[in-house]
């Protein structure tokens, strides 16, 4: 693997290779060394036992977070000997032979140990002048075997810094007016927090002014704690200027990460910073990023929100997926955070009348409702146990267990499997099972019960249980588009239930459209028929008439449209049940993309034989599909973008346009020949445009059906 250190040590370097040229550095270079410096926090005052000193320090931390997003910590209790040892160990890791380091090269984001250069060489347009070692050190500790003693040093260092981070997080929580252990409890930080050790090495550069060590970025986690060797290089963005950070010896530099910005609902901002390099000496910085457990969905703290004045500004996202998002894009300012920002104009408080009761009372009423719900579940379970109809009571019990009132977590896969098993044996059992789910769905006004019923139905559709799926497709016998009959569902007992009601209406429509598509295609999207390899499918599609393919595309695009009609309250994905629902829907979407793509490719090949009507239909379907793109990318912010498909759609649209224009010209020619004597028409007026309309129709009476 190439790396900057190797480049320097090769001895052949006289000037910087052009792929390291960082253009923005020169333009954006407004360094202000005389300005104020970042605040200093005396950590010992936080833990001294004096409430007054603690209070003052918490205020100072709050101010630093608010104004700077950065502070320096002194008297932190991490011994200098350990810090020095960590620095020496870091240096000796990079001094290992390339062969020893290569074991950790070319690794993926969640591989335990990664040695590399720049940020992500697969996506970086410009290379950065840094090499790195990244190790996931908590909750699972990892370490390279070499150099000798390295593992022990980083284990001790990371443990001490983690303890420091936990104490600082408590102070930050208090400064936000939250309980000090709020974050620890909400995210199981004591045991499961995620800690990433990042050792940055910036070798001296012959032209330091044209390269960048690390470009302006914000950190992904909650908090980053950084130490550096004797060389300055970190710049922090403050009041429109870059401020060089020159921390007091023995101190740590601490900064707020994107997840603290999310959690504090934007009160504490993650701040841009960058690392520049110098021409004389190697700079090393050791950063530890402290974040929530990887599978925790982080959204704004509930206690910081109110419906009237402080709506959520970010939607929830799993930390793991946020990391993936950052890794798969160029490191570029705060662009990742933009993906999870909620458009303030979209939040429900605009449409929801202010609740007539206080937030506190509402909270208590909600508790009471949940308690009532749990009692109801218990009573229903007892009733089914006492029932004499053994068969149906068995089914109903399985359904009750999968769709409880008590929690907003999705039913476990065991519970879902139990429902499927209960209805899977025979046609009458399948029929009883579907009816029992529908009874439960239509008999409740509780949002979570309804969402869980729909989630159970979705699992029936996606799992391989033909008889249940089939029974679902014929429910109820009168069919129709709104057969789940939830278009009027509203639970207005509190604002969250109100917002969730919109998700229920949306989810029901998505499921209805899923079944509609199955009818049109003749197989379920997630069935084994659908999972056939592309070759088999291409053959099947090849045998279809173009008119049938167009009907199928129309239904598939209709499905995409329903998905893209997702409610605006995207932040509700912080709720685990909603999150899981979106995950399942994204699986559907992935399958639809494949189905659409295969059909578009086939029609693309048949393009010249398609009629004008057919071309117009295809163009209109592709346009509708494209219109959904933006909304879908907001909903599936962290999933694969499938650029290949969008490219195919763009190309096909262009081809349709060209084919249509060619046909129009042919048409005009026919007319000209027909009316040769009068020569009253020219060839120019006909043009078909990419928005699917004809230009010049006012001048020509066009009968498209005459030309096929
Ligand atoms: O090297 C530095 O000072 C900054 C490092 C940094 O920002 C990072 O690792 O995220
Ligand atoms: Fe950083």
UniProtKB/TrEMBL annotation:
<feature type="domain" description="Fe2OG dioxygenase">
    <location>
        <begin position="192"/>
        <end position="292"/>
    </location>
</feature>
<dbReference type="InterPro" id="IPR013809">
    <property type="entry name" value="ENTH"/>
</dbReference>
<keyword id="KW-0333">Golgi apparatus</keyword>
<protein>
    <submittedName>
        <fullName>Uncharacterized protein</fullName>
    </submittedName>
</protein>
<keyword id="KW-0254">Endocytosis</keyword>
<dbReference type="InterPro" id="IPR050295">
    <property type="entry name" value="Plant_2OG-oxidoreductases"/>
</dbReference>
<dbReference type="GO" id="GO:0030136">
    <property type="term" value="C:clathrin-coated vesicle"/>
</dbReference>
<dbReference type="InterPro" id="IPR011417">
    <property type="entry name" value="ANTH_dom"/>
</dbReference>
<dbReference type="GO" id="GO:0005543">
    <property type="term" value="F:phospholipid binding"/>
</dbReference>
<keyword id="KW-0408">Iron</keyword>
<feature type="domain" description="ENTH">
    <location>
        <begin position="387"/>
        <end position="525"/>
    </location>
</feature>
<dbReference type="InterPro" id="IPR048050">
    <property type="entry name" value="ANTH_N_plant"/>
</dbReference>
<dbReference type="GO" id="GO:0046872">
    <property type="term" value="F:metal ion binding"/>
</dbReference>
<comment type="function">
    <text>Involved in the regulation of shoot development and salicylic acid (SA) homeostasis.</text>
</comment>
<dbReference type="GO" id="GO:0005794">
    <property type="term" value="C:Golgi apparatus"/>
</dbReference>
<dbReference type="InterPro" id="IPR026992">
    <property type="entry name" value="DIOX_N"/>
</dbReference>
<keyword id="KW-0963">Cytoplasm</keyword>
<keyword id="KW-0168">Coated pit</keyword>
<dbReference type="GO" id="GO:0005634">
    <property type="term" value="C:nucleus"/>
</dbReference>
<dbReference type="InterPro" id="IPR005123">
    <property type="entry name" value="Oxoglu/Fe-dep_dioxygenase_dom"/>
</dbReference>
<dbReference type="Pfam" id="PF03171">
    <property type="entry name" value="2OG-FeII_Oxy"/>
</dbReference>
<dbReference type="InterPro" id="IPR027443">
    <property type="entry name" value="IPNS-like_sf"/>
</dbReference>
<dbReference type="Pfam" id="PF14226">
    <property type="entry name" value="DIOX_N"/>
</dbReference>
<dbReference type="GO" id="GO:0006897">
    <property type="term" value="P:endocytosis"/>
</dbReference>
<dbReference type="GO" id="GO:0005905">
    <property type="term" value="C:clathrin-coated pit"/>
</dbReference>
<keyword id="KW-0539">Nucleus</keyword>
<dbReference type="Pfam" id="PF07651">
    <property type="entry name" value="ANTH"/>
</dbReference>
<dbReference type="InterPro" id="IPR044861">
    <property type="entry name" value="IPNS-like_FE2OG_OXY"/>
</dbReference>
<keyword id="KW-0472">Membrane</keyword>
<comment type="similarity">
    <text>Belongs to the iron/ascorbate-dependent oxidoreductase family.</text>
</comment>
<keyword id="KW-0968">Cytoplasmic vesicle</keyword>
<dbReference type="InterPro" id="IPR008942">
    <property type="entry name" value="ENTH_VHS"/>
</dbReference>
<keyword id="KW-0479">Metal-binding</keyword>
């Amino acid at each position: 693997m190439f790396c900057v250190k190797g480049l320097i040590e090769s001895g052949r370097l006289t000037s910087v290779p052009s792929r390291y040229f960082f253009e923005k550095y020169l333009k954006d270079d407004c360094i202000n060394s005389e300005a104020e410096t970042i605040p200093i926090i005396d950590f010992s005052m936080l833990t001294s036992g004096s409430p007054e000193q603690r209070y003052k320090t918490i205020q100072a931390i709050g101010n630093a977070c608010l104004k700077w997003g950065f502070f320096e910590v002194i008297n932190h209790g991490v011994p200098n000997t350990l810090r020095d040892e960590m620095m020496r160990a870091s240096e000796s890791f990079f001094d290992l032979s390339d062969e020893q380091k290569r074991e950790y090269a070319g690794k993926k984001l969640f591989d335990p140990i990664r040695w590399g250069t720049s940020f992500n060489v697969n996506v970086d347009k410009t290379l950065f002048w840094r090499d790195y070692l990244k190790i996931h050190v908590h909750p699972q500790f990892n370490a390279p075997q070499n150099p000798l003693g390295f593992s022990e040093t980083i284990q001790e260092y990371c443990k001490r810094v983690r303890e420091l981070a936990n104490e600082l997080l408590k102070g930050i929580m208090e400064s936000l007016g939250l309980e000090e252990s709020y974050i620890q409890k909400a995210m199981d930080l004591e045991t499961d927090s995620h800690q990433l050790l990042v050792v940055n090495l910036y070798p001296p550069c012959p032209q330091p002014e044209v390269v960048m060590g690390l470009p302006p970025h914000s950190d992904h986690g909650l908090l980053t704690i950084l130490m550096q060797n004797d060389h300055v290089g970190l710049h922090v963005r403050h009041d429109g200027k870059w401020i060089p950070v020159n921390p007091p010896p023995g101190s740590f530099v601490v900064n707020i990460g994107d997840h603290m910005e999310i959690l504090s609902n934007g009160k504490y901002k993650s701040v841009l910073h960058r690392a520049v390099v110098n021409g004389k000496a190697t700079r090393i910085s050791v950063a530890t990023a402290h974040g929530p457990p990887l599978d925790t969905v982080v959204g704004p703290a509930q206690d910081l929100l109110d419906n009237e004045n402080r709506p959520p500004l970010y939607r929830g996202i799993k930390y793991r997926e946020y990391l993936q998002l950052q890794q798969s894009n160029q490191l570029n300012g705060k662009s990742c955070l933009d993906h999870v920002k909620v458009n303030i104009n979209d939040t429900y408080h605009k449409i929801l009348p202010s609740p007539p009761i206080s937030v506190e009372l509402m909270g208590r009423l909600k508790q009471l409702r949940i308690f009532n719900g749990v009692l109801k579940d218990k009573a229903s379970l007892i009733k089914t146990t006492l029932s004499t109809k053994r068969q149906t009571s068995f089914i109903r019990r399985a359904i009750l267990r999968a769709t409880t009132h008590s929690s907003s977590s999705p039913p476990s896969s065991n519970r879902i499997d139990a429902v499927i098993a209960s209805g899977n044996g025979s046609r009458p059992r399948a029929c009883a099972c579907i009816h029992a789910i529908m009874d439960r769905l239509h008999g409740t006004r509780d949002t979570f019960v309804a969402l869980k019923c729909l989630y159970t139905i979705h699992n029936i559709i996606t799992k391989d249980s033909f008889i249940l799926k089939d029974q679902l497709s014929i429910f109820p016998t009168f069919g129709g588009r709104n057969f789940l009959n939830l278009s009027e569902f509203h639970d207005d007992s509190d604002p969250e239930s109100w917002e969730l009601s919109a998700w229920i209406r949306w989810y029901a429509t998505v499921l209805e459209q899923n079944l509609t598509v199955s009818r049109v295609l003749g197989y379920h999207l997630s069935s084994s028929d659908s999972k056939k390899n592309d070759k088999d499918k291409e053959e099947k599609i090849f045998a279809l008439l173009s008119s049938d393919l167009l009907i199928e595309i129309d239904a598939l695009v209709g499905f995409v449209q329903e998905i893209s009609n997702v409610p605006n309250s995207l932040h509700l994905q912080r709720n685990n049940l909603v999150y899981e629902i979106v995950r399942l829907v994204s699986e559907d979407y992935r399958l639809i993309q494949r189905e659409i793509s295969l059909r578009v490719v086939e029609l693309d090949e048949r393009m010249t034989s398609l009629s004008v009507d057919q071309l117009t239909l295809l163009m209109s379907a592709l346009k509708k599909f494209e219109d959904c793109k933006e909304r879908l990318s907001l909903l599936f912010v962290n999933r694969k973008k499938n650029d290949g498909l969008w490219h195919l759609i763009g190309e096909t649209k262009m081809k349709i346009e060209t084919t249509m224009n060619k046909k129009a010209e042919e048409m005009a020619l026919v007319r000209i020949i027909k009316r040769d004597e009068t020569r009253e028409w020219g060839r120019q007026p006909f043009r078909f445009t990419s928005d699917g309309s004809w230009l010049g129709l006012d001048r020509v009476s066009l009968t498209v059906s005459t030309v096929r």
